[in-house]
Specification:
With about 450 residues, this protein is α/β, with parallel strands linked by helices. The chain has 21 helices and 14 strands. Helices cover about 45% and strands about 10% of the residues. The chain has a 5-stranded parallel β-sheet with strand order 2-1-3-4-5, with helices on both faces. The protein has a 5-stranded parallel β-sheet with strand order 7-8-11-6-12. A two-stranded antiparallel ribbon has the order 9-10. The protein is globular. It comes from Marinobacterium lacunae. One of its GO terms (biological process) is regulation of DNA-templated transcription. InterPro entries: AAA+_ATPase (IPR003593), AAA_lid_NorR (IPR058031), CheY-like_superfamily (IPR011006), Homeodomain-like_sf (IPR009057), P-loop_NTPase (IPR027417), Sig_transdc_resp-reg_receiver (IPR001789), Sigma_54_int (IPR002078), Sigma_54_int_dom_CS (IPR025944).
Length: about 450
């Protein structure tokens, strides 16, 4: 088994116990990272997602239960194991009902801990599966990311894919909702059957029903032959309804009946036809607001929204911008033969510093324009500025960042610079000494980021 897929983060403010437990787990073949406090653990998780977390309950400052609550809120698929004293067992039991993977009562047997860890690392959505997906799994081959937020989302997606639950994908326009829908289909048991997609906002209302459910011969003027709709074409597979929030109310009622009865009636037909499809839908709209305005049916919303996956805007995953830009640069070589092999550091800095209101789709368009116009081996910053049609905002200095986002801000800088403190301090507008103080206050070290780069 790949050691990177057996990574465990140990959290305890007792250094001697932390060292002892580390020795035992390393001897059992685990890749062990340690944190002397819950705050330090959160900083490490922000840099690199472990396979599982083992934390003591009683610690100075934030305790193990609070740590679990924060981790579970941010990444509910990350297994957390709690080490607890006998008197706090009721608290641990309650936590398992809220998603804690398991707990052990001190003093515990090493064998019990190893068995619990193995179950945690083999659980669907755990880092063992996620790390394998990062490098090998074809279901997510079209998703380029180094973002912990995205990795947590993909771990959830892999869990959901194995079920038959309807999925609603939310996120701003251009974030890649259809790409995620295709990944869901490829990870599902239905992957050998068709994935059929339709944009509900792009087809006139009078044609949308026929496209979805089909029509009988002679159903309307021009219907010279029977037509199979997407629900029949996608039989056994997945139907992806993009921009479901723009579906007309009359069709919403018909779609609801299809989901309830698992059968369709083509336009002009006298008999219904059974269908076997999984529904994945997507929207950039706030459907709860649309329900309040009377534009979307609440009963259909709950049918579609069994599980929600929310894609973050590109500005919230800046570490992915250089990866995506270089990926697009390589992809576009077939479409537009060009000399550009990479971006200058200044060009990448401008890409990373931009707000990206159009998200990944806009980044692709900007890179494509740079490819077409570039005459050198490196795309210069001037071409990026021209493609953006405005002065880039640049990376904010630390003084502009809000206090509560301090750790995330520093993590983003060190990810972008691959742990180069001099460059990170320059981008933050701080000298090296002061920047090191900020890192120490947030339990961060440059080596944490260099390890991520090398792995």
């Amino acid at each position: 088994m790949n050691s990177a897929r057996r990574s465990v983060l140990l959290v305890d403010d007792d250094s001697s116990l932390l060292q002892l437990l580390s020795i035992r787990l390393r001897a059992a073949g685990y890749l062990v990272e340690t944190a002397g406090s819950a705050e330090q653990a959160l900083a490490r998780i922000a840099v690199s997602r472990p396979g599982a977390i083992v934390t003591d309950l009683r610690m100075h400052g934030m305790d193990g239960m609070e740590l679990f609550e924060q981790i579970h809120h941010q990444d509910p698929t990350l297994p957390v194991i709690l080490l607890t004293a006998h008197g706090t067992i009721p608290d641990a039991v309650k936590a398992t009902q809220r998603g804690l993977f398991g707990y052990l009562t001190k003093p515990f047997d090493d064998k019990a801990l190893l068995e619990l860890l193995e179950r945690a690392l083999n659980a669907p959505g755990s880092d063992e599966h996620a790390t394998e997906s990062n490098t090998n799994a074809p279901w997510r081959a079209g998703i380029i990311t180094a973002s912990q937020t995205m990795e947590a989302l993909l771990a959830e997606a892999e869990l959901v894919a194995a079920s038959e639950a309807s999925v609603l994908i939310q996120g701003p326009s251009g974030t890649g909702k259809e790409v995620l829908a295709r990944a869901l289909h490829m990870a599902s048991p239905r992957h050998t059957k068709p994935l059929v997609a339709i944009n509900c906002a792009a087809i006139p209302e009078q044609l949308l029903e026929s496209e979805l459910f089909g029509h009988a011969k002679g159903a309307f003027t021009g219907a010279t032959s029977a037509h199979k709709g997407l629900f029949q074409t996608g039989s056994g597979g997945t139907v992806f309804l993009d921009e479901i929030g723009d579906m007309p109310l009359a069709l919403q009622a018909k779609l609801l009946r299809v989901l309830q009865d698992r059968e369709i009636r083509p336009v002009g037909a006298s008999q219904s036809i059974p269908v076997d499809v999984r529904i994945v839908s997507a929207t950039h709209r706030n459907l709860e607001t649309a329900i309040a305005a009377g534009d979307f049916r609440e009963d259909l919303y709950y049918r579609l929204n069994v599980v929600t996956l929310t894609l973050p805007p590109l500005r919230q995953r800046p570490e992915d911008i250089p990866l995506l830009a270089r990926h697009f640069l390589g992809q576009l070589r077939e479409k537009h033969p060009h000399r550009a092999q990479d971006f200058t550091p200044e060009a990448l800095e401008r890409l990373v510093g931009y707000e990206w209101p159009g998200n990944v789709r806009q980044l692709l368009n900007v890179v494509e324009q740079c490819c077409v116009l570039c005459t050198t081996a490196l795309v210069p910053a001037s071409l990026v500025s021209r493609a953006l049609h405005e002065k880039p905002t640049g990376i904010h200095t630390y003084a502009e960042a809000k206090q509560q986002f301090e750790r995330d801000y520093l993590v983003q800088l060190l990810k972008i610079t691959n742990g180069q403190v001099t460059e990170a301090a320059r981008l933050a507008g701080r000298n090296r000494t002061e920047f090191y103080r900020l890192l120490q206050r947030n339990h961060l070290t440059p080596g944490m980021f260099k390890q991520v780069e090398e792995s």
